[in-house]
Amino acid sequence: MRSLLPALLLTSSVLAAKTLPGGYIVELSSAPASKRFADVHEEFIEALDRRAAGHFRTRRKYKNRLFNGMAIQLDTPQDLADLASLPNVIAVHPIVIHPGPAPVSQRVLTDSSAFAAGTDGENTHIMTGVDKVHASGITGAGIKIAIIDSGIDYMHPSLGGGFGPGFKVAGGTDLVGDSYTGENTPVPDADPMDCVGHGTHVAGIIGANPGNDLGISGVAYNATILAYKVGGCNGGIGDDVIIDAIMRAHDAGADIITMSFGSIDGWSNSLLSVVASRVAEQGVVITASAGNDGEAGPLYMSTPAAGENVIAVGSVENTVRTVQSFKASEPHDPILYRILSYPAVPGPPLGNVTEEPLPVLSIYPFPPDYPTEKCSQLQGLPDDIPDDLSGYAVVVRGTANMDCALMEALALKHPAVAIFYDFPAALQNENNYPAVLLYNDSDGFFLADAFNNGTNITVTFPQHDGAVDVPVADDIGGLMSSYSSMGPSNDLMFKPALSAPGGNITSTYLTELGGWAVMSGTSMACPFAAGSAALVLQAQGQTKLPGSVRSILQTTATSVPASKADNALPASLSWQGSGLVNVWNAINVNTLISPSELLLNDTAHWNDKHTITVQNAGIVAQTYAFSHQAAGTTLALAAGQHDIVGSAQLVSAPVHVSFSQSTVTVAPGSSSSVDVTITPPEGVDADTLPIVSGWIIVKSDSDSLKVPYLGVAGSLSDAQAISTSNVLTKGRDILPGIIPVDEGRISTGPKNYTAKDPSSWPVMWFGLSMPSRLVLVDLIDAAIDVTSNVPHTTSRSAAVEKRAWSSWLPATVKSKLSAPSSVADSATVPIVGALAEFDWLPRSGIYPNSGDATYTVHVVNFANGTKIPLGQYKVLLRVLRPFGNPDEEDDFDVYVSYQIGFVP
Ligand SMILES: *[C@@H]1O[C@H](CO)[C@@H](O)[C@H](O)[C@H]1NC(C)=O
Ligand SMILES: *[C@@H]1O[C@H](CO)[C@@H](O)[C@H](O)[C@H]1NC(C)=O
Ligand SMILES: *[C@@H]1O[C@H](CO)[C@@H](O)[C@H](O)[C@H]1NC(C)=O
Ligand SMILES: *[C@@H]1O[C@H](CO)[C@@H](O)[C@H](O)[C@H]1NC(C)=O
Ligand SMILES: *[C@@H]1O[C@H](CO)[C@@H](O)[C@H](O)[C@H]1NC(C)=O
Ligand SMILES: *[C@@H]1O[C@H](CO)[C@@H](O)[C@H](O)[C@H]1NC(C)=O
Ligand SMILES: *[C@@H]1O[C@H](CO)[C@@H](O)[C@H](O)[C@H]1NC(C)=O
Ligand SMILES: *[C@@H]1O[C@H](CO)[C@@H](O)[C@H](O)[C@H]1NC(C)=O
Question: Where are the transmembrane segments (predicted)?
Fold first, then answer.
């Protein structure tokens, strides 16, 4: 739980999590305090009515034994103070807005049928043993899977073509309406039709019927699907809606709930993670995508994936990908192409291109060194080509200097289709004619040569048999996807739990946009794991094999190597979890092992002794041998650094493992235990926070299982928690510091701000090198000297740029009205007033291709909304280090700013 006591939450500023201004989820006790009220909600509303200074609005009510409470919208911060003091209030949480479900990439396909019907030749199914499970007749029948996502295009022929009882998509609802953005008021209706495509893709991974043009099928295509639509056509999704959807799915009897979305959080006790975890405790399997932030490095899980009982799913690259092809009239292999789309999601792809052979007309054989000036002089096409190209497939070679108006010029001549080759891969056609880009330039040269030597060559774009599977680039197929988020959770739980295929996945898509798309993301891996769970549940129902789905899938997964090199180390389990799911293994072992994860913690809290229990569920005695397989050790920090960046180093630094006995013979129906002692590796630099992981292998003649373990061979609480470098600002300012709004750079000394211009009053800017469960930002008197254990910083760069303040000054996030008295007591520093307080913050991260995630607090008002009086102050930043005690001043990192004065 996020907080046990009613938390007073007021506005402050933080960049990381986005929250709904004035929106809160109030957790209520189960029974009203007074007998006058039928339920606790009524009592709460009446009390709030009496107390609220402004107005409030009920967003939704939760009446469930797993979560009782209300989501409300308040007008003023004062109401919040009232709210927290009402009877029955257990906790108050801001409504977090999660980004809408989205893949890392997507590509829409034409419909095609290249595959033999009847057998399951789908590559991701072969990688995970699902093909053999299907062949054995297990396809998810009788299992109910709830998909919480953007809705489902249930009219898709491969998804049943209808909605409601009797259809594949048998139930569910739309909790928000198409216009919901996460920030406006949801307008629910009964119809969970998808307008985004994401939920439809997810649904196909679980449930697409076989026998379609693409030759794919869902992992559990006979399962029943419930569609809970929580996202509109654009924007994000509020926690309040997701929690409602989880409760409804649970009430509707879902065996499995799958959620392909989330935000960086990493704490197993965020409200969403906790609610999901409570439902999972009831025996419902919950899968959630690990997140697509792998490039930010370890210790960066998403919520709800971080929930204790939630199965967090990482993504493995498919070994093939589906691409379209057309044929030439001269002998040649099928020519692979992608559609040049504009905007990013195209209309019916090439749906307008005839299936008749089209004569080729080759133009512009630009040499690679074709000069830009010449190109721009052309401003169009050569004179000698026909005005009407509607009967031709126009083959066009590009050049590095493709800035001439060629693509626009071509639009005036209406080509039947334009075939581009030797262009930059990022080429987009913004004009309304069908255009494709060839994957292999040699195919373009072949077409151009044939045209130029007088061959009467034609091309044919098949509408129904053009999809081919081609191997993905050798260096990534079958490996972890670079975007797949890394764990462990901030409390060193085993996250992710396991991995599934998620990169380059072909599945169903909005029917009106062609019906098929290739997408990549942990969003795609997550439903694969949900479908796998359905197969295990169905098999369990048949054989009565006990054990939780999570432990069965974890102990039978297969190891994912870190690279394609010979003798490559297995990827860290903080990335792959226990490995790639293998459903065939999962349903064919006659052994259960528990626990299914060994949590070693860090060296300050190391758990060295574990007991593994082996249960023989078969009909013959089995002798099990115990051994150890280490994965690569991830050095979370580079030597001498305090901020985690994406390029964490993988080294061989295994833990030491010893067993109380190396083999054990277990009679059928019995179980036996073996003690395992695990000690940290020697010779590694503990300051780099080495993440150690691997598996205890338990093997008999017929079964091979593994128990994953994970820990940190260093102490998180010894690591610096406040960032003191410019790593998080990508080489710009060195954090932390005070940044005057009108200067846009961190101050390098004391500074006065005039009362006349409060808009220029400063912002405290900081980054977290480590996750922290308590961050206090206070104003203190300038005369007070406080010992800082992180230094004053100066800006290294001379250039002063203005930043777009409105865009990065962030949304409201929780902060308490005043510091807990325990902290104030142990602190020797008298505080003028609290500026902000944050609990359970994730560490800051940087992404190679996007922004950073640092924190800001505007120094204008106290946390309670009262304006700061004129005077001379300093800002005191205190960050509780991981596993620290909030009552111990020594467990905080402390930073004191330069003097700031507010003068007339
Ligand atoms: C499973 O799905 C297939 C394909 O849609 C269908 O033909 C078959 O009848 C289903 N079987 C059951 C048991 O629902
Ligand atoms: C395809 O045809 C439809 C109607 O027949 C038209 O609206 C659309 O613009 C055409 N698309 C392309 C890419 O030519
Ligand atoms: C013309 O070029 C095509 C493609 O390179 C080739 O297959 C064909 O043999 C050539 N024909 C002649 C007559 O040179
Ligand atoms: C070229 O091929 C097309 C399509 O096969 C055919 O209609 C046409 O007569 C051919 N032209 C010549 C000059 O051979
Ligand atoms: C899909 O496969 C292609 C080709 O191998 C590869 O370049 C690309 O990175 C993959 N895409 C994703 C998002 O995994
Ligand atoms: C590791 O130890 C800390 C401190 O006792 C605790 O808060 C945390 O939950 C532990 N994590 C695990 C996975 O046991
Ligand atoms: C800020 O104002 C105070 C009071 O007027 C003055 O003592 C102090 O020197 C000023 N500081 C700076 C940096 O100008
Ligand atoms: C708000 O907090 C400040 C600083 O702690 C305090 O001086 C002020 O009285 C508070 N205002 C209200 C309305 O409680």
Answer: none
